[in-house]
Amino acid sequence: MGSPLNIIAIQASVHLPFDHRMLVQNLTAQTFNKASVSPSVQATFPYMFAVSRYLQPGTFDLVGTIVYEIDQKPYQNTFYNGTVEVVEAGGFLSVESVFLVTLGIALLVLLALWLHGQFQLTTKKTKKAPKVEVGIGTTDASLDEWLQGTAYTQSASKSKKKK
Q1: By percentage, how much of the chain surpasses pLDDT 90?
Q2: Burial class for 162, CB neighbours closer than 10 Å (0-12, 13-18, 19+)
Q3: Left (φ > 0), alpha (ψ -120 to 50) or beta: where does 162 sit?
Q4: What dihedral angle (degrees, nearest 10) is formed by the CA atoms of 72, 79, 28, 88?
Q5: 78 and 22 within one domain
C-alpha cells in the first residue's frame, strides 16, 4: 500500500482564450490543512469562487490546480483546463440596456424634430411683399400745387402734349 495524499490547497485562475499567457484574474485559493486521502480512495473537495463583478461578459479559460504532497514532497496537478462563459448577473435592467433605450429615444426625438421642421418649410405660405411705389407715377394735381411755375411742371406739360 502507498502513502496517503495530503491535500494542501486548490486554486484557479482565469485566462484569455486566445492567449493563455494573459492572466485575467487569480481566484481565491482554498486551503485544506493537509486533508488526508488514503490510496485507492476517491475524494471530492468543495471549491467555491466568483469572478470579479467588473469582469466583462465573454468566454474565458479556467484553469483549476490542486496542490498536494506525498511523503512530504509537494506536487501540483491541473484538474480542470477548459473554457467557461461569464455572463452578467440576471437582472431586469442592465447599464447597457438603459443606455441603448435612452439612445433610441433620443434618436426618435431628433427624427421627429427634423420631420417637423421639413413639414413647416413645405407648408409655409410666403408673405407678399408690400407694394412700394418706384419711379414717377401719376399723382393728384392738387398735390403738385407748390411746383407751379417750376421746371417740373413745364417738363410734365410738354410730355403730355407729345402724347
Answers
A1: 40
A2: exposed
A3: alpha
A4: 180
A5: yes
DSSP 58-93: EEEEEEEEEEEEETTEEEEEEEEEEEEEE-PPP-S-
Note whether residue 14 is domain-resident.
Answer: yes
Let me know whether 77 and 99 are in one domain: no
3 state SS of 36: strand
Q: Determine, yes or no, domain membership for 161.
A: no
Shared domain check, 56 and 12: yes
List, for residues 7-49, the tens digit of each pLDDT value.
999 999 999 999 888 999 999 899 988 789 998 899 888 888 8
Residues 13, 57, single domain; the answer is yes
The answer to whether the CB of 33 falls within 8 A of the CB of 7 is no
Do 32 and 98 lie in a common domain?
A: no
Taking Cα atoms as reference points, which of 59, 61, 60 lies closest to residue 81?
Answer: 61
Domain span at residue 98 reads 93-120
- pLDDT of 46 reads 86
Q: How many domains does the chain have?
A: 2
Maximum alpha-carbon separation in the chain? 149
Reported pTM: 0.52
d(CA 138, CA 159): 13
